[in-house]
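ingest -> validate -> predict -> emit
validate: passed (alphabet ok, no gaps, 158 aa)
predict: started
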Amino acid sequence: MFILNNSIKILAVADDIVIPIDSVEDEVFSQKMMGDGYAIQPQSGEIYSPIDGIITTLFPTKHAIGIKNKKGLEILIHMGLDTVELEGDPFEIKVSQGQKVNKNQLIAKMNLKKIEAKEKKNTVIVVYTNMELLRSISEVPSGNIKHGEKVQKIRLKK
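emit:
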């Protein structure tokens, strides 16, 4: 995370194709009901932190992780669509609640074969849940990306 003039660089959480959040095949995300952000169709199941921060939320079903940075930005990383129904089976969480994490640190693994076998989408969605703090969000690049590469730049109001 680089903060300069109240801007934050958001990194890719996985490798492969990055897509705008409004293209996600789930209305809760595509309609930005939870906030703005981006999504990735991962080629591997390794999920990395997009920012430096603290793990604030670990869902019991292991399908989602919340991170908050020192400026107050809250990010939800949601692994797969409708994967809450899988009750944690295809996920391996590598962090604990309250743990400090660094950008590009491995935080979870998804078993993509298990997700596909249950006929679920493996799309990983990154959502900025406290939009009231944000002044602007850059466009999502198109095409392939590697974890740790910049996906978006956010400018905070303060």
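The longest strand covers residues 74-81.
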